[in-house]
Specification:
The protein contains three helices and two strands. The protein is mainly α.
Length: about 100
């Protein structure tokens, strides 16, 4: 590789060797942005779930609304949500047993 002297120092000509370093730095930045994005999705879902739960518990609370609490409708049918969650956990457990036994 030909080197030339500038200001008393040897300078290497520009090559494509530095592009690998730049590409890995770019991937690190993209990975950081992706991680922040997915963390934001998870936190947003948790915030939404907690907000709906608090709203529904205030709608059905006899302390908050007196005797008319039974006539107010909630956003989520929590009995159905609990049954679906239990069924999902049971199915995942059964699938895990089936997969791990092979």
């Amino acid at each position: 590789m030909a080197e030339r002297e500038m200001n008393g120092r040897l300078q290497r000509p520009l090559s494509r060797a530095g592009t690998k370093h730049r590409a890995s730095a770019l991937m690190a930045v993209i990975g950081e942005v992706a991680m922040q994005f997915f963390l934001g999705l998870i936190l947003g879902a948790l915030l939404l779930f907690c907000g709906v739960y608090v709203y529904d518990s205030m709608q059905t609370s006899s302390v908050a609304n007196g005797q008319v609490a039974a006539t107010n409708r909630t956003i989520v049918n929590w009995d159905v949500a609990h049954a679906d969650w239990t069924a999902l956990k049971h199915q995942a457990h059964q699938d895990w047993i089936r997969i791990s036994s092979k």
